[in-house]
Design a protein that fits this description.
Layout: H1 3-15, H2 45-56, H3 59-70, H4 75-97, H5 100-103, H6 107-110, H7 112-115, H8 121-150, H9 155-172, H10 174-202, H11 205-220, H12 224-229
Helix pairs in contact: 2-10, 8-9
Length: about 230
């Protein structure tokens, strides 16, 4: 066998799915910001989908999305704006995440290839603030949900329970996170369908959208009498 064929064989072996890696789910995560070896890189687009879909199909994302309407935006235009924002943001993140299997690094570390070692400080600070805000919101909302399930009045009890569970799952690492992502995808989808059915059967969604649309039209195109009075 030639040297070239030997190198190609080694490259193919390193790119093949890991057959010797431990399959244990409950194992303390060993990788942090260091490079993940080739033989530990695995997964599929479906596992990525369930991970991020399950992470966003929960109470924090629903409440954050509803804030646009709470702050006075029209419901229909708020949905369109959120859809456009998520699609554009998803495209950018999809392109960036494609680097993961090739570089074997977390996104914040691999961003130094685009922004430089010092330039990457800017997106790093922004994402830290984003994660802190998202974690704080999720902790409070999940804490309230835990309190409702356990019938506890003290808010801090639910926050501590949720925080402890989050820390355990993060410590036990990659495989457990993906398993919970698949479970969250199913549970979150069923919960969202239930809430949607309740929303359309209990509340008059059509009239609410029409009222907001009428208010938006009056604010953009006031009537002649309103213009004359002003």
């Amino acid at each position: 066998m030639s040297t070239k064929e030997t190198r190609m064989g080694r490259a193919h072996a390193s790119a093949a799915p890991d057959q010797t890696a431990p399959t244990r789910t409950l194992r303390v995560e060993r990788r942090s910001i260091d490079v993940v070896p080739d033989d530990e890189r695995h997964g599929s687009p479906w596992s990525q989908f369930t991970l991020w879909f399950g992470a966003n199909m929960q109470i924090t994302a629903i409440v954050d999305g509803a804030l646009a309407v709470v702050f006075g935006a029209d419901a229909l235009w708020a949905i369109i704006g959120l859809l456009i924002g998520n699609v554009l943001g998803g495209v950018v993140m999809a392109l960036h995440s494609a680097q993961g299997p090739r570089l074997g690094l977390p996104q914040m570390i691999s961003s130094r290839a685009q922004f430089g070692v010092y330039g990457a400080v800017v997106p790093l600070v922004l994402v830290i603030l984003l994660y802190l805000g998202f974690a704080a919101t999720g902790a409070v909302l999940a804490g309230q949900a835990v309190n409702a399930l356990l019938h506890v009045d003290a808010t801090w009890v639910g926050i501590i329970v949720f925080g402890a569970l989050t820390a355990v799952i993060a410590t036990l690492g990659y495989r457990l996170i993906h398993i919970i992502g698949r479970i969250s995808t199913v549970v979150g989808t069923l919960g969202f369908i239930y809430l949607a059915i309740r929303l359309f059967t209990v509340h008059d969604v059509g009239s609410a959208v029409n009222v907001n649309r009428s208010r938006w039209r009056r604010s953009c195109w006031p009537s002649p009498s309103a213009r004359a009075g002003s």
